[in-house]
Amino acid sequence: QVQLVESGGGLVESGGSLRLSCTASGIHFNMHSLGWYRQVPGKERELVGVIASEGRRKNYSDSVRGRFIVTRDSTKKAVYLQMDSLKPEDTAVYYCYAKRDGYRYEYWGQGTQVTVSS
Fold first, then answer.
1. Which end of the chain is more exposed for a tag (fewer CB within 10 A), N or C?
2. Are 95 and 109 in contact (CB under 8 A)?
3. What contacts 82, CB < 8 A, 6 or more positions away?
4. Could you tell me which residues come within 8 angstroms of residue 17 by beta carbon, excluding any fewer than 6 positions away?
5. Which residues contact 93 (CB under 8 A, 6 or more apart)?
6. How far apart are CA 17 and CA 86, in angstroms?
7. Coil, strand or helix at 73
8. pLDDT for 9-65, tens place per residue?
9. Any idea what DSSP says for residue 16?
């Protein structure tokens, strides 16, 4: 059974930092791209950042590039999202994401709330 479990969300002031963590189980970790999406009520889920299975190629949305960093640790089977210089518009539910290379099916965590106060 595949499980992605997020942690690290919370309330932070504008300009502050948070680090999200996601631990994965039930997948071949090194064969999956991993990352983060986010969603606010009434809007579609959007990409935040994704790191490829080989651990080097990364893709970020324009809105977070330069402020957020995605990393992965194969020994801990975890993916992280370091968020710096947070803005109120970063407020959303953040979802951990996994997709096996060459396959279409995507796995999602349950989501963790991030709230940035102005």
1. N
2. yes
3. 17, 19, 68, 69, 70, 71
4. 82, 83, 84, 85, 86
5. 38, 39, 40, 111, 112, 113, 114
6. 6
7. strand
8. 999 999 999 999 999 999 999 999 999 999 999 999 999 999 999 999 999 999 999
9. -
